[in-house]
Amino acid sequence: MKHSERLDYIDLLRVIALGGVIFFHYFFSGISRGRITSIYWIAVTFIYLVTIAPWWKFPGDGFGDYALSLTMFPTAFGGEWMDAAHWFLKRELQFYLIVIFFMAVGLGKRLPHIFPIWAITMCVWNLFNLPTYEIWYLNGYFALINGGAIIYCIREWGWNRMRVIGLLAAYVCSIETRIEHAAFLGPWRKTEYSPLIVSVLVTIFFLMML
Length: 210
What we know:
Layout: H1 3-28, H2 35-51, H3 63-69, H4 88-104, H5 111-127, H6 141-157, H7 161-189, H8 195-209
Helix pairs in contact: 1-8, 5-6, 5-7, 6-7, 7-8
């Protein structure tokens, strides 16, 4: 395995680890106000302080970029993530928005039924390569998040046919879209990703949540 390819797989493992931490805090530890946000703000502040230190060899982000990062959604304001590993928070916040919407319209109690339908819709949509029209919630990343939500429902209320189908749909969609995304990144990063390794990593991710 080439050195650059090995580093890319390490980056992918970092992403999975970050997602696992987020899922653990939200789905398994329960909602504790400020738990994730406070850790994120501490991390961003630490990065900012270290990179502006006079002994740091590489120039860091300015205060404006740091302030945008505190919003947890800097790209919405034309900024960039201070640490590229934080990109997954964007999808997490988008997920919270749709959950808040369903709760606001009185469908909060229906979420355990909505998640499997959402997963099946995403799976069919991506397998047939239908246009997403820039709709966030048809993006393949949400197959991972939705899979975590379905697993949470299973842990709370048990298995049923719809949750099994939804979980399988989320799993299949996750593998298909991650392989496709890896193929897209390959030429750009001048490396080649093994579909088998990508599939194994996605499988490990789901097993960790179970």
